[in-house]
């Protein structure tokens, strides 16, 4: 099981409930970018995200988007590298820059449902990326080489943050070394190495960007604590997928995944952590959100309310 940084670097500038929210990232933050970008139709629900400031529209949504409250550039499956590959972090960054320029220009011409320059300055920004870089790298490279590549991932995140104005679940099988909780050791070692360098980047950027508040959120710590204490929180086997094929211990078959012919679905998804062997259940995500908002895993430990009241 590998738990990487989901929010990673949470970078905020004086956001309040009346100010917009803009996010770049992967499947953890995607609210419809994937289906819009690839012309798919999964059916409802998608395209919804709210932090008490109104629903957001995916940047790639072409039918009646409303960017009054911000925009979501995240697309499932994206990564930091290779650059400019749909829909990598660098490509999302280019989309954001175009969106900002066009939005300010359109607002000056009387258009509605877009953002002005002051709103971009005071917006809440989040970047959620890194996990796909690690997970896909393990299919091609040994652990030591994956760790050697981490600085290149971190550089892309640093570049995105600077330009933007501030700008564990495993599906592997076979003989592998596990820790005492059943997590795959070499994957978590890489995740910890990635997060260590990301934390150092946040420290560096705080000294360079004096007018920004940069908060590092330890999502790895949240998820690892959750997995290690599954019974305490009333959940079942943390590695058993609710939707999949194969039964215990994983109920995961890479050739017959959730939604394909032959799959099965558990009756009580609220007792499961893994939805399909790759993604988390809604109940698990609720736990993660609660821990994130508790600020106990944030460095510095700033309460989320601070950003809404500043």
Automatic annotation (TrEMBL):
InterPro entries: GDSL, SGNH_hydro_sf. Keywords: Glycoprotein. It comes from the Eukaryota. GO terms for molecular function: hydrolase activity, acting on ester bonds. Pfam families: Lipase_GDSL (PF00657). PANTHER family: GDSL ESTERASE_LIPASE LIP-4-LIKE ISOFORM X1 (PTHR22835:SF158), ZINC FINGER FYVE DOMAIN CONTAINING PROTEIN (PTHR22835). Belongs to the 'GDSL' lipolytic enzyme family. This is Lipase. It comes from Trema orientale. The lineage of its organism: Eukaryota, Viridiplantae, Streptophyta, Embryophyta, Tracheophyta.
């Amino acid at each position: 099981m590998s738990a990487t940084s989901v929010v990673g670097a949470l970078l905020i500038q004086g956001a309040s409930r009346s100010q917009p929210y803009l996010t770049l990232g992967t499947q953890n933050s995607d609210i419809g970018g994937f289906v819009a970008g690839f012309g798919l139709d999964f059916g409802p629900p998608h395209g919804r995200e709210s932090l008490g400031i109104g629903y957001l529209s995916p940047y790639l949504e072409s039918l009646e988007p409303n960017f009054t409250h911000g925009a979501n550039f995240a697309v499932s499956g994206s990564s930091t590298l290779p650059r400019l590959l749909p829909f990598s972090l660098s490509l999302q960054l280019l989309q954001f820059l175009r969106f900002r320029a066009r939005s300010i220009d359109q607002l000056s011409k009387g258009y509605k449902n877009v953002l002005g320059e002051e709103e971009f300055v005071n917006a809440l920004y989040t970047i959620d990326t890194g996990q796909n870089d690690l997970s896909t790298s393990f299919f091609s490279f040994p652990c030591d080489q994956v760790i050697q590549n981490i600085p290149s991932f971190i550089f892309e995140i640093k570049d995105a943050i600077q330009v933007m104005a501030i700008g564990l679940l495993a599906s592997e099988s076979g003989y592998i070394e596990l820790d005492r909780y059943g997590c795959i050791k070499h994957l978590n070692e890489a995740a910890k190495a990635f997060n260590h360098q990301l934390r150092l980047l946040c420290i560096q950027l705080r000294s360079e960007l004096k007018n920004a508040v940069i908060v590092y959120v330890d999502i790895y710590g949240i998820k690892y604590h959750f997995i290690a204490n599954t019974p305490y929180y009333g959940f079942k086997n943390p590695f058993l997928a609710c939707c999949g094929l194969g039964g215990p211990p994983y109920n995961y078959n890479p050739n017959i995944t959730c939604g394909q012919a032959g799959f099965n679905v558990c009756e009580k998804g609220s007792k499961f952590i893994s939805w399909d062997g790759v993604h988390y259940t809604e109940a698990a995500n609720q736990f993660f959100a609660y821990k994130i908002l508790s600020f106990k895993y944030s460095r510095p430990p700033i309460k989320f309310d601070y950003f809404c009241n500043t």
